[in-house]
Design a protein that fits this description.
This protein is α/β, with parallel strands linked by helices. The protein contains 7 helices and 6 strands; from the N terminus they run βαβαβαααβααββ.
């Protein structure tokens, strides 16, 4: 495959320490020091981009900027590339959610796609939103190589569709921070990408 014609999906680099152990969806946090270093290294790993599109979250934008700067292109923002909305749980620790909502937490851990976060999103509506956003980026790209900086949930949704995986298979996939997944032109299917741990 000519990777110069690829769509490159990037999970944002490591967020600030405060975010660890928390449900972070709409809660806006930036990168840790390590995450900032990851973003710089990721720009080198990803290489030249003709277009860089990012979620509006600070952690994604801070990951996207070194990639865009290295390629001398602007960062375009696509709001629907944001992470799932955890609603009332957003920003809360997993421990507090488990303690105060044990039944829902159990369901979340065993069948994540079955949960409707109070005041937030269900997996099905989130998945539709994320895939629509990726499809818009893919349709609109005249550039040969587009880098999309987004979140774990969005990437799982895209890879799940590309590989025809059932929703319950997605959450066994391991996609670390600052990981790039290269997909063929027109989302024909994923090929091995590069990862920065």
């Amino acid at each position: 495959m000519d990777v110069s014609s690829a769509l490159v999906l990037v999970r944002h680099a490591e967020p600030v320490r405060w975010a660890r152990g928390r449900a972070i969806g709409r809660t806006d946090v930036g990168l840790s020091r390590a995450g900032t270093r990851q973003a710089v290294e990721l720009a080198r790993q990803v290489g030249q981009a003709d277009r860089v599109v990012s979620s509006p979250a600070a952690r994604a934008l801070q990951t996207a900027r070194p990639i865009a700067d290295a390629s001398a292109v602007p960062v375009e923002v696509e709001d629907d590339l944001r992470e799932i909305d955890f609603g009332a749980f957003d920003g809360r620790t997993f421990a507090s959610i488990r303690r105060e909502h044990p039944g829902l937490y159990r369901t979340w851990m065993h069948d994540p796609t079955a949960v409707h976060f109070p005041g937030g999103e269900r997996w099905g509506s989130f998945r539709a939103r994320a895939l629509d956003a990726i499809d818009r980026v893919d349709r609109e790209r005249e550039a040969r190589r587009t880098v999309v900086v987004t979140h774990l949930g969005v990437i799982l949704a895209v890879i799940g569709r590309a590989r025809s995986l059932a929703d319950d298979e997605l959450f066994g996939l391991s996609i670390g921070h600052a990981t790039a997944n290269v997909l063929e032109t027109r989302l024909a299917g994923p090929v091995p990408g590069s990862a920065v741990e």
